[in-house]
Amino acid sequence: MNNHDPYAALRFKEFNLFLLIRFLLVLGWSMQFIIIEWEVYNLTKNPLSLGLIGLFEIIPAISMALFAGHIVDQKEKKKLFLFAIIAFLFVSFGFFIVTSNYTYSNYNSKQILIAIYLLVFVGGFIRAFFGPIIFSLVALIVSKSAYPNAASWSSSTWQLASVMGPAFAGFSIGWIGINYSMGFVLIAVFMALLLTLFIKKKPILNPKIGEPIKDSLKAGLSFVFKTKSILVAITLDMVAVLFGGAIALLPIYAQDILNVGSEGFGMLRAAPAVGALIIMFVSAYIPVARNAGKKLLIAIFCFGTSIIVFGISSFFYLSLFALFMYGLTDGISMIIRQTILQLKTPDEVRGRVASVNSIFIGSSNELGAFESGLTAKLMGTVPAVIFGGVMTLIAVGFTNFKFPDFKKLDLSNDV
Questions:
Q1: Pairwise CA distance, residues 266 & 145, whole Å
Q2: Exposure of 101 by Cβ count < 10 A (0-12 exposed, 13-18 middle, 19+ buried)?
Q3: Residue (of 379, 360, 320, 405) closest to 240 by Cα position
Q4: pLDDT, tens digit, 9 for 90 and up, residues 146-159
Q5: Domain annotation for the chain: domains and CATH numbers
Q6: Quick check: 186 and 96 in contact, CB under 8 A?
Q7: Local confidence band at 208 (pLDDT 50, 70, 90 cut-offs)
Q8: Residue 381 above 50 pLDDT?
């Protein structure tokens, strides 16, 4: 298959179905997170309460991640995918009930807040399985020659949905309210569940079925720490995501700094979506395997710069542009990282490597939200955002000098 074919992965019918499923799941999950984030801030008016949402999700996500990776490498992927989506559906239904008029009529704000945090905590356990399942499933749907292109389409779909979901949530909150917005989440997740039924069962490629969990986890961790290209890529992205959690503070910017209300909040959330949409199409035409290390460093440097600009800005349209660049550069870095992971990871350890990646990257989204909420509480919202951007730039500089071979990383010969 032509390595430069921008539609290489899309020529696999199941991959097209997979992209739609992933879009619906990420759209629903990101909408849900923002709807709850907005409501929690309405209930408390405390930036730290926003950070706690991330903290309550990251604790179970991290504690279960390695075990989830072990399970994924041992079991059939489609069945696990179905179970994870069903569990997600139950959590979303719980949020739908918690945000209903009945709940607000019969329970006080403290009780509602406790219920929200409890559901977020349960959702963290479920999320621990999604990363390893999806990462492993892609490799079973397309051929190895299409891995880089599949990584571009899959990562771009994730990025697009992850910013379109919050943008849509921001508008829907103002138009139809919290509870009906959660209803859209339920519909999206249910549609994803139905579509998953059309994916065929996949073979289990791990030759060590029944391997003791201790040995299995040790093998997965050992592989990641021995493969420097993977370790440096996920560590660098982890730092960027951890300190680049400015998005978690958007409700404060929309309500108290830029004074643009829920519709302005929706526009701010939509700005990264535009950047992600551009990357979704451009990345399929421009191979990221060549000079991957250098491209990743440049992308994360620009990501940190966009955060600083957003933090400093008091002008709505400049803030929109900064968030546009935020989404664009974040999309580039994620596509490159996923390409590195797909090409450098053997099939038999994909679940465990993906679980380590989810600890480094996926969970750091929520930890980043907590970091942003905590620093905003301690030093103020604007200084907290600027601090995050500066720390991201420092991480890029440190990686450039500490690991000079990484910027020479080229994956052209790995396809």
A1: 39
A2: exposed
A3: 360
A4: 877 887 788 778 87
A5: 9-202+209-414 (1.20.1250.20)
A6: yes
A7: low
A8: yes
Distance (Å, whole) CA 39 – CA 169: 12
Side chain identity at 43, as an amino acid letter?
Answer: L
Residues 265 and 268: their CA atoms lie apart, in Å, by 5
Angle between helices 363-379 and 47-74 (to 10 degrees): 160
pLDDT digits (tens, 9 = 90+) for 223-250: 888 888 888 888 888 888 777 766 777 7
CA distance 316 to 270: 13
What phi and psi, each to the nearest 5 degrees, are found at residue 5?
A: -70, 115
Per-residue burial over 176-200, b if 16 or more Cβ lie within 10 Å, else e, is eebbebbbbbbebbbbbbebbeebe
Q: Give the span between the Cα atoms of 54 and 366, in whole angstroms.
A: 4
Helices (H), 203-315: 213-226, 228-243, 250-252, 261-285, 292-312
What pLDDT does residue 122 have?
A: 93
Q: How do residues 299-325 score in pLDDT, each as one tens digit? A: 999 999 999 999 888 888 898 999 999
The pair of three-digit structure tokens given for residue 73, joined into one six-digit string? 């490498």
The confidence score (pLDDT) of residue 2 equals 45
Distant-in-sequence, close-in-space partners of 144: CB < 8 Å, separation ≥ 6: 415
pLDDT of 99 > 60? The answer is yes
**Ramachandran region, residue 12 (left: φ > 0; alpha: ψ -120 to 50; beta: rest):** beta
Which DSSP state fits 121?
H
DSSP3 helix / strand / coil % (the chain, rounded to 5)? 85, 0, 15
Measured N-to-C along each axis, helices 292-312 and 381-402 cross at an angle, to the nearest 10 degrees, of: 160
What the block records as the tokens of 19 is: 């992209």
Reported pTM: 0.72
Given a cut of 50, whether residue 1 has pLDDT beyond it is: no
Burial group, residue 121, by CB count within 10 angstroms (0-12, 13-18, 19+): middle
Q: Tokens in use for 149? A: 């292109």
CA–CA gap between residue 205 and residue 151 (Å, rounded): 20
